[in-house]
Amino acid sequence: MDSIYIYETRELDYFTSYLNKAKKIGYNPVVVSNNDLANDKEFAEFKSIYTHLSVNDYNFELNCFARYFAIANVLTNNDPFILSDSDIYLTNKKIVLTDSAFKNVFIGSEGFANGVTVEQISPHFSVWNRDMMLDFTNYLLNAYKRNHQDNFLGEYYEAQKNILGYSATAISDMTLLYMWVHDNKIPYINSNNAGNDWGIDHNISVLSCENAEYRSLHNRKKVEITTDGKINLILESGQRKEMSCLHFQGAYKQILNDFYLGDYKKFDRFSANVNFNQKLHYLAAGNKLKHYKALASQYQDIEAALDDYRDRLEAIPDELFNVKPMGDSWSYAQIYSYSLQEALAAIAKLEQCTQSDCSYTNKKLGFWSWLQLLLSVPAIVKTTETEMLSNTTTTDKFTKEDAVNLIIKCRQRIGAVSSLMHNANNNSRIEHPNLGMLNAKHWFKFIRIHLQHYLKQLQHTENKF
């Protein structure tokens, strides 16, 4: 039977659910603890030379290293096995370790951001054998002995702080795994790659993998649960990947047991709340949060609208994308091209306002403009088809792939510009043809109203087919 080893010393509400599911689908879960470190001279030596270089708690980081020594002590053969964190949701798809792909190869989950490795390999659902585990514990001892001589880990830590920022930096077991793989030339496969079919999730909150991006919902991966019980994640390409596990890291641990119990609606509500609070802190950037709640809500609605654009796009038949249904109705391609390119133009104006690269005026909004924004009434600029075509990509050549790229670009741009909102001066304004002089907060709200309005236009076009 395929074995999973879990090092756990805490009382967790989801751990029993995890163990029961592991047994149900055919794994042999083996729980390892501090008892398996008794009289371990190697771990005692490691503990004496360990240098804490992390924003995380000392005991947290030390326990992350301790698990390798503890598991090495209980292994009795060289068969492949899975090392697993406890904050894992196991689906009904079981990994079969007798597959030749797992023989004498280390499989871990390497983090990527914007297509570039973050030089860390997560072991949260990784494949090993005894020889590799012993080799890694030996590497850990030698690495920290060397560090006492030349401080190479300390220097690496300082370099990573400059790259990743202080809040995201640690010399952790994940850092040492990355170094071990490269220094010892370990046969290695990255499970965080769209090309394999094992379905090992890197982190529910991380959308990037080695060579692709996942679709999002509430700023975490969008999870699809099929009628036959499969759990899928969806790449931006539209490809569905059946998962063997989901990694409920960070705040999502709180909802893991509910997910095991099948309360998926609670999972979605929890995700929306986490996303809102993340947006709130992100937009406030150290200022008083209460002034930024409205903006956080706008941001969440913008993301939800872009998710809706993406989902609707997938459902549109390719042969109908450029077809006008009747009369003066716009085609799907025209709506996607116009609405998204206009949104990008509005985001550019928003950015100018956040950087005061525009007019400075204390002239307030007129009453009707204020009322339109208050009531979320679209500020429609009457646009003829001829004018629309002259201002956007020629829609007979505009493809669904073009639409996907615009959605991604809108998401990236609004995310980047949002980080500047806390510096925006209310008197830095750019004129809108109908609404008058708008500041950054006005443009932010306008973008949300604009995107939601053209979602209704998409529904209008759909109803005419």
- Which structural class matches the secondary elements? alpha+beta
CATH architecture of the largest domain: Alpha-Beta Complex
Query: What is the number of domains?
Result: 2
Principal-axis shape: globular
Integer average pLDDT? 89
Which topology of the largest domain does CATH recognise?
A: Spore Coat Polysaccharide Biosynthesis Protein SpsA, Chain A
**Low-confidence spans:** 381-394
Strand order of the largest sheet: 2-1-3-6-5-7
* H-E string: EHEHHEEEEHHHEEEEEEEHHHHEHHHEEH
Strand content: 5-15%
Question: How much helicity do the residues have?
Answer: 40-55%
The overall strand count is 16
Quick one: biggest sheet? 6 strands, mixed
Question: Kindly, what is the distance between the CA atoms of the first and last residues, rounded to a whole number of angstroms?
Answer: 55 Å
Please give the count of helices: 14
Radius of gyration (CA) equals 26 Å
CATH class of the largest domain: Alpha Beta
